[in-house]
Amino acid sequence: MSTTVQNVIKKFGSYQALHRINLSIQEGEFLAILGPSGCGKTTLLRLLAGFESPTDGSILLDGIEVANAKTATPPEQRNVSMVFQSFALWPHMNVKEHIQFPLQHHRFADKAMKQDANQRIQEVLEIVNLTNFSDRMPGELSGGQKQRVSLARAIAPKPKLLLMDEPLSNLDAELRMEMRREIQNLHQLTKASIVYVTHDQGEALAMADRIVVMNNGEIEQIGTPEEIYYHPETPFVAKFVGKANLFEGSWEGDSFTLKHSNVKWKDWGISNKLKEKSIYPLRPEQITLSRKEHGELTGTIKTKQFQGRDYHYSVAVNDQVIIGHIPLSKPFEVGENVSVIPIEG
Ligand code: ATP
């Protein structure tokens, strides 16, 4: 379903968690809300679910206002399901009962689904690969299986909007990668709109159609993963998403002069908004290091990490520490003096 957040402010007492948020989510879209801890991601998701009400502004689902400062439609009356980081399973119910519950109680589960709940349960068990686990209790399941049950419970009544609050953060690294693919499959199968909260930029970049980057209760940038990664519009987005090194200096047309030096670098497609802030961003993989004096930016290797495909170096340059990911063919040692050169400059 289409979702619109209009001028939403959320205060907890005197603390303002959200500052006038405006956002629209298209029908069938997979939208990630990405940001550091405490930036307001969960609060925004809880407002969409109906667990919180806005202090000001309004929320519309399929064009119908479901919440404003005065009234709010309760969660069970929105065609929305939520998946939690903690799985939130009921200890006394087996897998099948978890899936059955929303079929009986969800206002939007249609008659056919209620009458033939067993068929829907089987369908959903197949989708989440738990066909042989229907009688297991939560205590008899692994973390990944528990999260699959919570996904199954959420999709069973065919909600039009699926809200996910860091659903993979309690799983180990390998399982997280596998579950990313499963959630993508689930999105294709259900065609529900998904709003997916995460602080992991890898997850957001990998899965979302669009990413909303939040910081301090405000939206910093909205865009496709490629736009956010290649064309960050604020220093925060450049650092948080691309782990970019940010250099200060001055722009003149397409030429950047580093602060306190004569070093000049060329534009590689940097957004005008960053240029207006007199910043030149370079992601670690956009840097090359050289032993030769290039009369450019020089520094000293502080740390070296072998990563299989490349080495990750930290280099002390003036009062800044720069991170570079350099292919294996060029090993440097800690203590070496190097020139730092942009690949695309
Ligand atoms: P995390 O990734 O750590 O879950 P988040 O981005 O989801 O963080 P929120 O949980 O939305 O952040 O919280 C945003 C801010 O609002 C935080 O400073 C938090 O302490 C505050 N906050 C959230 N809920 C409440 C509440 N019920 N009462 C008071 N303050 C709250």
Describe this structure in words.
The chain is α+β, with helices and mostly antiparallel strands and 345 residues long. The protein has two domains: 3-227, P-loop containing nucleotide triphosphate hydrolases (Rossmann fold), CATH 3.40.50.300; 243-342, Nucleic acid-binding proteins (OB fold (Dihydrolipoamide Acetyltransferase, E2P), Beta Barrel). 27% of the residues lie in helices and 34% in strands. The chain contains ten helices and 19 strands. It has helices at 41-49, 95-105, 111-115, 117-127, 143-155, 173-190, 201-207, 225-230, 235-242, 272-276, and strands at 3-12, 15-25, 30-34, 56-61, 64-67, 80-83, 161-165, 193-198, 210-215, 218-223, 245-252, 255-258, 264-266, 279-282, 287-290, 297-306, 310-317, 320-327, 337-342. The strands form four sheets. The protein has a six-stranded mixed sheet with strand order 6-7-8-3-9-10, with helices on both faces. It has a five-stranded antiparallel sheet with strand order 15-19-16-17-18, with no helix packed on it. Strands 2-1-4-5 form a four-stranded antiparallel sheet, covered by helices on one side. Strand 12 and strand 13 (264-266) form a beta hairpin. Helix 2 (95-105) packs across helix 4 and helix 2 (95-105) packs parallel to helix 5 (143-155). The longest helix is centred in the middle third of the chain and has 18 residues, at 173-190. The protein starts with a strand and ends with a strand. The mean pLDDT is 92. Residues 12, 15, 17, 35, 37-43, 199 line the site of adenosine-5'-triphosphate. Adenosine-5'-triphosphate (ATP) binds at residues 12, 15, 17, 35, 37-43, 199. One of its GO terms (molecular function) is ABC-type transporter activity. This is ABC transporter ATP-binding protein.
